[in-house]
Specification:
4-stranded antiparallel sheet; 1 helix; alpha+beta; 118 residues; Type II secretion system protein I; membrane; 4 strands; N_methyl_site; rod-shaped
C-alpha cells in the first residue's frame, strides 16, 4: 500500500490559525502607528500655537499681569483653544507663563511654559 503525501487537516488548520494571529497582530500594529502619527500631528500643531502665543508675548516687551485668559488659534486646518496662565515667581521681576492648549474636542494637548522678565 502506497502512503499518501501531504498535510493533514489538523496541520492545515494550525497553519491557518498561526497566519490569522500574525495578520491580526500586524493590523493592530498598523493601527497603533496611525494613531501615533495622528497624535504627533495634533501635538506639533498645538505646540506651534503655544509657541506663537508666547513669542508674541516676548516681542510685545510688556510685563504680563497675573491671571488667566483664554486664547484661540488655528493650525493645519484645526482649531485650538486654551488658557494662558500668568503666575508670580519668587523673584518679582519674573513671571511664569503657562499656555495650556486644548483641541477642538476639549481634550488637553500640551502645556508649554516660559519665564518672562521685566
Amino acid at each position: 500500500m502506497k502512503r499518501a503525501r501531504g498535510f493533514t487537516l489538523i496541520e492545515v488548520l494550525v497553519a491557518l490559525v498561526i497566519v490569522a494571529i500574525a495578520l491580526g497582530a500586524g493590523i493592530k500594529a498598523a493601527g497603533a502607528l496611525t494613531d501615533n502619527a495622528e497624535r504627533l500631528t495634533l501635538v506639533s500643531a498645538g505646540q506651534w500655537c503655544a509657541e506663537n502665543l508666547l513669542t508674541e508675548l516676548r516681542l510685545s516687551q510688556q510685563f504680563p499681569n497675573i491671571g488667566e485668559s483664554p486664547f484661540a488659534c488655528e493650525q493645519l486646518g484645526r482649531s485650538y483653544t486654551g488658557k494662558l496662565k500668568v503666575s508670580p515667581t519668587p523673584n518679582p521681576l519674573f513671571r511664569r507663563v503657562d499656555a495650556d492648549v486644548i483641541d477642538d474636542q476639549g481634550r488637553p494637548v500640551l502645556t508649554l511654559t516660559t519665564i518672562l522678565g521685566k
